[in-house]
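ARCHIVE CARD
CATEGORY: sequence design from structure
SOURCE FIELD: tokenized fold
FIELD CONTENT:
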């Protein structure tokens, strides 16, 4: 019996080796763990005597598998387990499986795409679920769009100086798999959002300029309107009257921007991003905003600017720098008629990562205490990054000040100034943030980090002291990359 089993195993190995000759399989990924303690992470005193509930622990595992047929063709899949909060239960879905017995169905599909080169050309094509982000010269991640999405991306490099990328992405198709709506209006429900973009990087000796343009057709029942309104803090708890189909007319959206970087004066480097976007104007029904304005249909429109810049100077022991951003905000008189002054955003996986606590700049852990996009604010900060006097140990010190750009008369109108991932800040609201972060490269593949952050948030009294406490967070993390 043992001889038969041995022969079968040997045959399987031979067959497996033969199959492996056709496709080269490479695996990479990461294990992330973080343990932290925070105080007033929501800028409010702990309620119901839950002062002890300040400690958290969570983990995430990502595994990417490349099936490489040749240098011209490969398929890629990436799976994620997590984020799992230790001690939290649930049997299925993101975050499940952290409670006793660790049972949970929590594997997510992050990427699943085909990557190939068109024969006898320099045209590369990537199609499927993939990470897609608009350019940023500052390196902070684009506040308009940077997320995993289904789409097709085609890139062509004309020469060492000029290339062109075109893409089509479909972030929303609201009712495609919903049996309640599949037969609505003869099956012709206008529920898609399609994005078409062009990115044209131009690279010279020590400089680069990347203009980009995105057009999007917004379906009348796509769901993007509640997503944008709720996500950017336009709605209170009541939301819209209904998510039903025909909540608005179909509309157009577009964005135009440019990413600039300059390194010819190295060790002095400079980055700049300028972008403008518009969504609407179209009739929007089923809108309800409680205490803010009357319940009424109106012509909805949101459009605005976002500008960011940074300057860094690399020294032997660290990189001092200054950074800042400005985003247009809402005007009180215009909002009453459904006209908003902030640039529309579509999706964020990484967010505008200017700081490690108030925004999304943490290596892995609790962040985004104030905003994921910083739309509707302006800010300025000073930092010294990569401070190192001991091998494999580095530090970053950062101080930032930011304030809202939305009309101060909008303060206090609504239930409270938060929705989605963003605090709604007006020109009467401001914050100071301090980061003191450290990273130690324990092994070539294993890094350990300590992030300390403090935010003093000063919201106007018209918000009825909804935010009445400063926030602190300290966390230790481990990242193993393979």
């Amino acid at each position: 019996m043992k001889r038969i089993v041995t022969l079968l195993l040997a045959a399987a190995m031979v067959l497996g080796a033969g199959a492996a000759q056709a496709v080269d399989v490479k695996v990479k990924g990461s294990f992330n763990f973080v343990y932290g303690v925070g105080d007033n992470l929501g800028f409010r005193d702990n309620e119901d005597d839950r002062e002890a509930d300040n400690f958290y622990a969570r983990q995430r595992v990502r595994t990417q598998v490349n099936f490489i047929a040749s240098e011209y063709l490969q398929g890629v899949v990436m799976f994620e387990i997590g984020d799992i909060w230790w001690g939290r239960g649930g049997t299925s879905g993101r975050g499940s499986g952290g409670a006793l017995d660790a049972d949970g169905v929590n594997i997510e599909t992050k990427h699943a795409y085909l990557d190939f080169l068109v024969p006898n050309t320099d045209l590369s094509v990537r199609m499927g679920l993939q990470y897609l982000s608009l350019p940023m010269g500052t390196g902070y991640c684009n506040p308009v769009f940077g997320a995993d999405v289904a789409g097709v991306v085609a890139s062509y490099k004309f020469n060492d100086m000029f290339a062109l990328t075109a893409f089509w992405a479909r972030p929303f198709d609201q009712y495609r798999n919903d049996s309640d709506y599949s037969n609505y209006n003869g099956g012709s429900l206008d529920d898609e959002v399609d994005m078409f973009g062009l990115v044209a990087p131009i690279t010279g000796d020590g400089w680069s300029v990347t203009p980009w343009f995105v057009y999007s057709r917004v379906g009348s029942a796509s769901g993007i309107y509640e997503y944008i309104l709720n996500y950017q803090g336009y709605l209170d708890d009541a939301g819209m009257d209904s998510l039903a189909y025909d909540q608005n007319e179909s509309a157009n959206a577009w964005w135009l921007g440019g990413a600039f970087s300059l390194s010819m004066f190295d060790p002095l480097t400079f980055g700049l991003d300028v972008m403008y976007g518009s969504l609407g104007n179209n009739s929007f029904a089923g809108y309800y905003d409680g205490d803010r304005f009357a319940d009424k249909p109106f012509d909805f429109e949101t459009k605005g600017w976002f500008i960011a810049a940074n300057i860094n100077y690399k020294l032997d022991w660290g990189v001092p720098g200054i950074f800042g951003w400005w985003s247009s905000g809402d005007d009180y008189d215009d909002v009453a008629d459904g006209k908003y002054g902030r640039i529309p955003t579509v999706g964020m996986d990484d967010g505008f990562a200017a700081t490690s606590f108030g925004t999304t700049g943490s290596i892995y852990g609790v962040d985004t205490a104030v905003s994921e996009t910083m739309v509707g604010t302006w800010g300025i900060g000073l930092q010294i990054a990569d401070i190192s006097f001991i091998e494999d140990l580095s530090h970053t010190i950062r101080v930032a000040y930011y304030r809202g750009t939305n009309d101060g008369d909008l303060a206090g109108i609504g239930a409270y100034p938060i929705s989605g991932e963003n605090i709604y800040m007006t020109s009467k609201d401001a914050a100071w943030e301090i980061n003191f972060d450290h990273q130690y490269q324990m092994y070539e593949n294993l890094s350990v980090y300590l992030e300390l952050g403090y935010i003093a948030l000063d919201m106007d009294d018209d918000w009825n002291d909804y935010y009445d406490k400063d926030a602190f967070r300290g966390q230790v993390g481990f990242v193993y990359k393979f």
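CARD ANNOTATION: The two ends are 39 Å apart (CA to CA). Residues 145 and 347 are 5 Å apart (CA to CA).
SHELF: design records, drawer C
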